Amino acid sequence: MFRTGEGVDPEQQIRRPCLRQRQLRAVERERILPWIAEYSPYALVSDGDPPVYLFYDAPPAVGKNQKDPTHTSNFGVKLQEHCIGTGVACELAYPGVSDVKHTTTTNYLIKTLR
User: Fold this and answer.
1) pLDDT tens digit sequence for 41-85
2) What span, in angstroms and rounded, lies between the C-alpha atoms of 89 and 48?
3) What domain range includes position 33?
C-alpha cells in the first residue's frame, strides 16, 4: 500500500513519480538529439528534396496512446505538414483517407517515375 508523508498532499505524492519520469525522458532526449538530427526523416527534410509518399496501415489517432508513435500515421501527418511547409511535395495515404491521389505505393511510383 502506498503511504503518504504526514502533511503531504496525496495527489502530489502520486504525481512525483510521473514528474521524475518526465525529467528522465528529457535528459535522455538531450543525449540523443544529435542522432535525431542525423537520422530523423523530419529533421532531414529540406527544400529541393524529391517528393515523398507515406503509406500507413491505420488512420491517425492523434492524442491517443500509440505503441510505437514514431512509426504511426500520426507521425506521417506531422511529417507531411513539415514537408509541405518546406516546399517538398508529400502525399499521405492510409485507410479511410478521402483526398489521396494514389491509393497504393505501386500506383504512386508508376505515376511519379514515368
Assistant:
1) 999 999 999 999 999 999 999 888 888 878 899 999 999 999 999
2) 10
3) 7-39
